[in-house]
Amino acid sequence: MRSLRSRLRLILATGAVVGAVVLCVPAVLGFSGVIGWTEAVTLTLLGLLCAAVGALGASVLLLSRRMGALSRSVTTAMDAHSRRIAETLGQDRLENVRVLEGVHERFVHLQEHTLPRMNREIRNAVTVQGRNDYEQQVAWTELREHLDTATFMPPLRGWAASPDVLRVLVRHIDRLRPELVVECGSGASSVWIGYALRRAGGGRLVAFEHDARYAELSRELVAAHGLDDVVEVRHAPLVETASTTVTVDGQRLSTADRWYDTSAFADLEGVGLVFVDGPPKATGLQARYPAVPVLLPRCTEDVVIVLDDAARDDERGLGDRWLDEYPELHRVEEAAEKGAHVFSRKGA
């Protein structure tokens, strides 16, 4: 645009010069008498008109050329922009194709590998759960028939002990006829153990519970089954105890620093069976470990210690510690839903 304005100024200047010349010539001829003043004025006007027409024509020609150049520039820019758009669209299309190929590959992997694996895992889980449910139903039925319990018994499994581990306990009660059974924890299992001791013809159970409210509920449950003379539920709050450091998966970790108040165990002697089902896991790492150090000196030579939830790594780890620190013990792993490890003295 700046170049166009410069050229227009040049044309106007040239037209002005030509116009001046045109005006001068007729005037000079008129003054010299060669032509009359009427002819001089007419020639002057014709000259001015021709100059204006010439200037206008030159301007139109220049503008036409400039418009042509502008059109070519716009066309070139449009072509470049179109190419950029086409390239961008092509890249987007290529990226979309790659994304779709990736989605297809994942779909194929999902269809050929993930789904069949998940299907196998679900079938296995359902099979295992079905087998566990069947085994617990069998154990429940056997316990009911063997112990001749009340019609309505407290439910098992979940937070409570499972029927299969109680079956292990009842089997040892029938064999050992212990005078004293100790349970770390209380609840439904306390009632079932009470029935087993009554059937065995003697012995009593002392169950230790860290939660005062739950201890009261356990007492009420025991009383509802008329087992007050067989089962005693003691409140033993968790208090500070010595902690140690153990290696778990290559890491040095501190064990739980709370356990039952040992003063509640002071009068116990001649313990023939110990059921370790507490404190709860949330207490800390290997929270159930102190059961053997505290109770083993108060036990009979043929004592049996049953550790519940032994399928968990935490319980297996503390069981390993028991064996390392008390070499007179040996361990038998019972098939149970949550895992059950039975410890006894060698040769007993």
UniProtKB/TrEMBL annotation:
Lineage: Bacteria, Bacillati, Actinomycetota, Actinomycetes, Streptosporangiales
Residue ranges of coiled coil: none
Assigned keywords, A-Z: Membrane, Methyltransferase, Transferase, Transmembrane, Transmembrane helix
Signal peptide location: none
Pfam families, A to Z: Methyltransf_24
Residues passing through the membrane, by range: 40-63
Any one biological process term the GO annotation gives: methylation
GO molecular function: methyltransferase activity
Record-given protein name: Methyltransferase
Keyword set includes Membrane: yes
